[in-house]
């Protein structure tokens, strides 16, 4: 609706307009808003007025007068310049429904076209008026002026002239040394406009607050500001907080409409030991000083605070209600508006939804209410308590002793497998006997219960026996591994003895029998320490048992097969070992370190049901080998923050496999909380405490925090490490027992804990916790290092990068060598960078400029170039040459596994991690890939379905492929032994000797220790004998099935007897099939008359064509019909060209036909031979006489195993 000319004349007669000022200037608020992105689409202020009755035409006239009266209401902005139009036409819209409120009120303004105001009327009962202004022309204090004058104009009053637009000269507030705002953020902030959340509630009795403030000689606002500073300091864990105070910045004598308010920065230091009266006095002084600055403060602040009266107008009988409408978007993290409504002090707390969660916002408001109640009651800041609670889950059953529980499992499941490693296995009874024998040895050596014994054993079987023996005796085992070598572990703490296993016997070095005695068994592991030397975590026997028998989502069942893949120095191995043994399950350990592809195959082949996968392993398997996990029951992952993207892929692909995110430090026995995943809604929570665990979120004064507030996690329960009372990280609490200070910042929402970061520079690196400050201290202690800085970089891959400044003449290689000798691998940077100036004297980092130059070797082939590209992508921004060592240029083991998976994916060939580590550069890896078998051509094939116990490897004869392996599966599938076929056609080599060398390497990698059992059949036996010879002096038990040596006599026998006999038999077999086929064709046509010549000729023609087809097939007997046949023929040709050399003793299973031709005599000049006779000949001893052949194989197996 537009103003009529007559109405305009009446309004103009009532106005007294003062002379206009020239060259209007921007206020600080306007300058700030114009510099913000999209100023025309944000910062709208809106109010809803409700009237019992109203003359809309009079209201319209009054609004038009207000626009003409105040310069700010006629402003627009073009190109960043402020303009004041002489006139502006305000339209009062009519809306049919209240549902249009948000669409009307918060629609964007065109800031280049005045007026930047709109009004609307919704006729009804009551009548509703919406008034909206852009913040470029209006602020909160303008509202009182506007509504007061509007009411008076509506009643027909004459007003004095309004002041013209003037802006006082303001100083910009200094930004130097400004503390960061208190951060309650539990979410990632968005860029630009953010959804708003508005909370409203009563803070308390306004009169009580005013009386308390008056008692201290300050205003209510100053008293409340001090309380808010205390709230933000304690709940935001900051000793210094900064607020923006919204100041009206205008004269009360000549009120003006416009965005004249300013932000006054108030910085308050909080002393936890000071009284609240002291804090109030300091707040009052700081606020007075800030107001004297007269400058708009644009520096970061924790919150913006406005203390206003409620939005009520001057006497306007028709007005029955007024409400400021909340904008849908937030422009600051926290905006607090304090209002006195009658006897109550109300707060309107507007927060950005992407800044904090709903739980955090609600908790902050509730906590302020609790704080005010306690302050009004006279409680001092150090005694303030929040409405927090500890999270604790009790353990449902009594915890038995470790030895008692183990003996009960042995009695119950003595014959079941306790450990399977490669081709070796131990039953629970075996483990009981072997550990019992070691217990006697340890006792005889004088080692007492409670003393620490260093365990320096790599083989899983021996390691397991050792720690079971030590645990049963109540001794403390201290594991060593590649990350924590013996020379370092011995220097970190007192140990009574060292235990090793060599040449099948135990070696006990008891040189420190006077070492301290703890009288409590368990184990000791090390984490990053404050001086560089790692700190010990001493875990009790009770904590081990409680972890192992823990109910809930991490519980292990007796029929589970647990993967033992964590390093023994990593606390996840505690769960793998003891949760398996103390529940009667089976522990499955790989015989060697595995690549990601090999681990995936191993998980499938061993039928693993439960595994703990560190975050890196989890992401690697999800990226490249997800389907390998489809047969599992439970996957636990932890160590670092779980990737939501990888978790979502896992859940979508494997809904039947349970995925659990676990969290907990070494000092609280591996796991503290767990979260079973069912869907992904954002960052993965840490979950709730496991049985026997508790989590307390405390502020810096040790008070429990309410839900939604980030606090430091103190962990309690049965898992807390043992101390002598001198450990600052552990304290005793009257209500919760021992508590461990984790240093992790967590928050609680909906009963689930969430990770918010660290309170220090501790990071997770290679699955271990590392303090960056401690690594820097270790580097600075080196005599060649002048300065050092260490950071964890996450782009493109996680790595620990050290920037060092060296003394003149110093060599970086010497620094790296000394670091490797003195410190564990978990503290070693993956990448060293020498800088001309690593740090400036001020402590600031200098320009990142590399001073070293490297002569780059170019790739020699396309494959080399592609391999180099993969390596460089993994190590970016580090550059590499074709012969550069991957590890020396910053790579690490987990990154190597990812690179290996990518290489195998690109080239579709398979190489093992051992091959990668042997020569980790692009040139050598390209050669390795060129020689590797195609990835789809798998080398090993299970023949018996037995997965436990030692294995024998069968080298097939014939073509060495699937047909022969199918025959062996039919013949030997019923054997109760683990028999694995080797598809020798997958080994690409030019000679049989070269093929045997590749076979020996593969078998040694698959079974690196213990006796190796090899079976060879026919020509495969020649290859098996040569591989066994190459493996000497390692013990090899060799069984040959009807194999002749490749001597002159053997070649003659094969070419003159065996091969012609095979061809004749194959031809006769085909002739029989041809006769049968012709007979079926003839019989099929006998039901019709053959007397008719036409039909008789058709039948004869059909028979002739069938006969010709069979004739051609019989003529081609012996010729290769496929690529597999061609490769098999190549293997046979290589065998005939090979000459057998003397080798190890062997067992020979010989059919009657071969014995008649003296097969054993042919072998006797070359090896010690034990012959086992079976009936039949070469063509039928595995078919017709398979039972007798199986008996002979079992006799060999039992004889070899017992030896």
Question: Could you write a compact summary of the structure shown?
Answer:
This protein is α/β, with parallel strands linked by helices and 1203 residues long.
Mean pLDDT: 79
Terminal CA distance: 107 Å
Note the beta-strand portion: 15-25%
Class per helix and strand makeup: alpha/beta
**How many DSSP-defined strands?**
47
The helix content, as a percent range, equals 25-40%
Q: What can be said about the biggest beta sheet?
A: 7 strands, mixed
Number of helices: 33
Q: Indicate the radius of gyration in whole angstroms.
A: 42 Å
| Uncertain regions spanning at least 5 consecutive residues | 1-21, 171-180, 187-194, 309-314, 836-856, 1087-1092, 1120-1124
Strand order of the largest sheet: 9-8-10-13-14-7-12
Q: Give the overall silhouette.
A: elongated
Describe the structure.
There is one protein chain. This protein is α/β, with parallel strands linked by helices. Helices cover 34% and strands 22% of the residues. The chain contains 33 helices and 47 strands. Strands 9-8-10-13-14-7-12 form a seven-stranded mixed sheet. Strand 26 (610-614), helix 17 (615-624) and strand 27 (634-638) form a beta-alpha-beta unit. Helix 7 (220-235) crosses helix 8. It is elongated, with a radius of gyration of 42 Å.
Annotation keywords:
alpha/beta; 33 helices; seven-stranded mixed β-sheet; 1203 residues; elongated
